[in-house]
């Protein structure tokens, strides 16, 4: 005869006990593992707003900008998305890696540094040593900007206006995309002559915003035009926009000495102070992260890594201006 096992139905007390234990475990796991991501672009600026945060890395970083429990994401999908990202094919840049603001990803920062170190070791013999976010896969326009402009003190008002405008575009695009279209931007914005741009009429704004090659929405174009008008006002008050903006650092470039990309900040107390004053004066698209990217590009802050061939060159230029 077969053995028949009679299963006793659980009592209401046992069911309640099991439910309580399950809920307790769930609360514990939520405290230990933040497995949810808030779908927000509030930290989008942290993704690509500096030369060292670009391409694939920017999309990765903006995805993990902040945590929330409203949109649960499975743990295996969370980490598989990192592993599927081909870091060398993107340009790891902002002059800053956005991962600095995500403390839970500190271990991931170290692995990124390993990737960048591997890129350096694979560089062609005799090639120039650059900041590690410049790789053999980097776009030519991106490399040229790093070698010729980024970190070089700029004092011309039109040049400063151009750099401020380009940094504002980082809200929607990365450096490579922007630099590929740089000549087009110069053409439609009158070589970034802030007086000419400030006089643009409605038809000019609409013509630029409808130009699909530029990839600029109407609101972005209006921001650039409005900022040109603000620069004109500042220039009248201080003699030049350059004198105003450099006055925030006592007319002395800030020369930092960072060894690793993760050490380069996304924003600083100084960029926050400058941002606050610019906003007070009517400027747009000038949050503290964008402002710090502008400071880096304009050489107000020299953030080339110390083993980059441009560090000493930019530092010497900065010392001459002291």
TrEMBL record:
Residue ranges with Basic and acidic residues bias: 1-17
Region (Disordered) residue spans: 1-22
Record InterPro entries: Adenine_glyco (IPR005019), DNA_glycosylase (IPR011257)
Keywords tagged on the record: Metal-binding, Zinc
Highest taxon listed in the record's lineage: Eukaryota
UniProt-listed PANTHER family: DNA GLYCOSYLASE SUPERFAMILY PROTEIN, OS04G0501200 PROTEIN
The protein's name in its UniProt record: Uncharacterized protein
Annotated residues for binding of Zn(2+): 131, 146, 304, 308
Presence of keyword Glycoprotein: no
A biological process from GO: base-excision repair
Listed Pfam families: Adenine_glyco
Molecular function (Gene Ontology), one example: metal ion binding
Native organism: Canna indica
């Amino acid at each position: 005869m077969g053995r028949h096992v009679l299963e006793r139905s659980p009592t209401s007390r046992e069911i309640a006990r099991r439910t309580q234990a399950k809920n307790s475990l769930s609360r514990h796991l939520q405290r230990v593992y933040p497995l949810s991501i808030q779908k927000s672009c509030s930290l989008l600026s942290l993704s690509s707003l500096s030369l060292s945060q670009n391409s694939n890395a920017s999309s990765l970083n903006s995805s993990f900008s902040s945590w929330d429990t409203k949109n649960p994401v499975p743990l295996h999908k969370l980490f598989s998305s990192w592993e599927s990202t081909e870091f060398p094919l993107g340009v790891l840049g902002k002059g800053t890696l956005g991962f600095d603001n995500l403390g839970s990803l500190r271990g991931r920062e170290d692995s990124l540094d390993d990737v960048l170190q591997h890129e350096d070791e694979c560089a062609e013999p005799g090639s120039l040593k650059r900041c590690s976010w410049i790789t053999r896969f980097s776009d030519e326009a991106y490399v040229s900007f790093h070698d010729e402009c980024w970190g070089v003190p700029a004092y011309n008002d039109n040049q400063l206006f151009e750099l401020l405008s380009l940094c504002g575009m980082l809200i929607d695009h990365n450096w490579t995309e922007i630099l590929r279209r740089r000549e087009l931007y110069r053409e439609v914005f009158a070589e970034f002559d802030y007086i000419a741009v400030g006089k643009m009429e409605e038809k000019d704004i609409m013509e630029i915003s409808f130009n699909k090659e530029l990839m600029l929405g109407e609101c972005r174009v209006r921001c650039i035009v409005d900022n040109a008008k603000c620069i004109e006002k500042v220039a009248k008050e201080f003699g030049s926009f350059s004198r105003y903006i450099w006055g925030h650092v006592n007319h002395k470039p800030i020369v930092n000495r960072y060894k690793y990309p993760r050490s380069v900040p996304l924003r600083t107390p100084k960029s926050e102070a400058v941002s606050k004053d610019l906003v007070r004066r009517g400027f747009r698209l000038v949050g503290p992260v964008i402002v710090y990217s502008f400071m880096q590009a304009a050489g107000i802050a020299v953030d080339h890594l110390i083993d980059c061939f441009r560090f000493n060159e930019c530092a010497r230029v900065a010392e001459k201006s002291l």
